[in-house]
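Below is a filled-in request sheet from our internal design queue. Each sheet records the structural input a requester submitted and the sequence that came back. We keep these sheets so that new team members can see what a complete request looks like end to end.

REQUESTER: design group, bay 2
PRIORITY: normal
MODE: inverse folding
CHAIN LENGTH: 204
BACKBONE (tokenized):
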């Protein structure tokens, strides 16, 4: 049975965290909630929690970063036929309020299962690898992986999604973000990429 948009709003969006004062008008917030219920929730969840590891968690992600990624999907600068079709009808204002909505949602960390693997990931994230010339992830994304308005929040992200993006950067299949990531991804071994992705998921 298909759940109606009003029911979805009642179940999740209208009971979600309120946006900071001045961040969006009530009309803009209602618009964002409607878009999430119509377009986003199947992959990213009603509050950006994303139940599937192949789709990124958007909860807590920086509003400006989300808006820029949506614009890049719409223009084709970032390649994804699925996301291009989802973003095509969005206005710049829609993208902005969606970013504001998702940034306001609570982000949750994932408990790690392999302590030794996570320890390797923590080392790479915090210190890099001087033998291969790999810089620390924290040097750009911050000690806790919280990122900036220009650089994405990594903390709590699905490990599978992180690994997929690193592979895309390494293969030059993702070209819309900082080209520095192409070099960084090329220096990561398969083990390092897997370990750092597992560690990132444990950050709050």
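RETURNED SEQUENCE:
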């Amino acid at each position: 049975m298909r759940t109606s948009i009003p029911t979805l709003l009642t179940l999740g969006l209208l009971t979600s965290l309120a946006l900071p004062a001045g961040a969006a008008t009530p009309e803009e917030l209602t618009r964002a909630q409607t878009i999430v219920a119509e377009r986003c929730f199947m992959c990213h969840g009603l509050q950006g929690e994303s139940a599937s590891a192949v789709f990124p968690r958007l909860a807590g992600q920086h509003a400006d970063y989300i808006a820029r990624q949506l614009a890049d999907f719409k223009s084709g600068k970032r390649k994804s036929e699925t996301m291009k079709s989802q973003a095509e009808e969005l206005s710049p204002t829609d993208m902005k309020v969606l970013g504001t909505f998702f940034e306001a949602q609570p982000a949750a960390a994932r408990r790690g299962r392999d302590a030794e693997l996570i320890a390797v990931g923590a080392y790479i994230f915090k210190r890099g690898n001087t033998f291969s010339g790999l810089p620390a992830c924290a040097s750009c994304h911050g000690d806790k992986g919280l990122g900036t308005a220009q650089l994405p929040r990594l903390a709590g992200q699905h490990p599978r999604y992180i690994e997929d993006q690193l592979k895309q950067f390494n293969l030059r299949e993702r070209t819309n973000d900082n080209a520095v990531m192409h070099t960084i991804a090329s220096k990561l071994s398969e083990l390092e990429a897997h370990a750092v992705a597992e560690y990132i998921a444990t950050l709050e």
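SHEET NOTES:
- The chain is about 55% helix and 0% strand.
- Residues 26-44 form the longest helix (19 residues).
FILED BY: M.R.
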